[in-house]
Design goal:
It is built from 9 helices and no strands. It has helices at 2-20, 27-33, 38-45, 48-72, 77-91, 95-109, 114-133, 142-161, 167-183.
Length: 193
């Protein structure tokens, strides 16, 4: 029963945040819509801000699975890295992710929560280290390079998602910049693209 209530609150909040944005979501409206009270929300999450964090956790988990699926489907390690980064940029066009993670989370917390940053950086570092070990990428410090790449891709996604921009045009510009950035890591000519 408790898990069902938590699940219902999370689903209702996710839908409300996606449709109206965090700042314009009324807790009373969305809890009443699923037959619950504000008290149930506070019992399970403690605050509206913590509810937003729970929604972000859920979405980031889905994003991580999607990125891993994209990377796993690539024909080689280089394409896995490239496609993982490209897929993250493309997610900025998804209305729910754009609104909740790339706009509201940034407005509330300044960035993606630290736990999710660590997961994303670790995935990039592992991929980069494998490429370095295989001679595909130039020898470099995989940890710092992963952090720099993560920052570049994340900032580009934030830029794509800005409310006053043209997301498809910004995605095209970001994709071209990503390819230039990644090509600089290659040990040989960029024949892997």
């Amino acid at each position: 029963m408790l898990e069902d209530t938590r699940t219902r609150l999370l689903a209702a909040a996710r839908q409300a945040f996606a449709e109206h944005g965090y700042a314009h979501t009324s807790m009373d409206d969305f809890t009443a819509a699923v037959g619950l009270t504000r008290g149930a929300l506070y019992h399970h999450f403690g605050s509206k801000e913590k509810l937003l964090l729970a929604v972000i956790d859920q979405l980031e988990g889905e994003v991580g699975l999607h990125l891993q699926t994209v990377a796993d489907a690539a024909p080689d390690g280089w394409q896995a890295l490239r496609r993982r980064c490209q897929a993250y940029l493309e997610l900025a066009l998804e209305p729910e992710l754009r609104r909740i993670i790339l706009q509201d989370a940034r407005a509330m917390f300044g960035d993606v929560p630290q736990a999710h940053q660590r997961i994303g950086i670790a995935a990039l570092e592992s991929a980069l280290q494998t490429l370095i070990d295989d001679g595909v990428a130039r020898p470099t410090h995989a940890g710092v390079t992963a952090r720099m790449l993560y920052g570049a891709v994340t900032e580009a996604a934030f830029w794509i998602a800005e409310a006053d921009g043209d997301p498809p045009a910004r995605l095209a510009v970001s994709t071209a910049a990503l390819d230039m950035l990644l090509n600089g890591l290659l040990a040989g000519p960029p024949s892997h693209l």
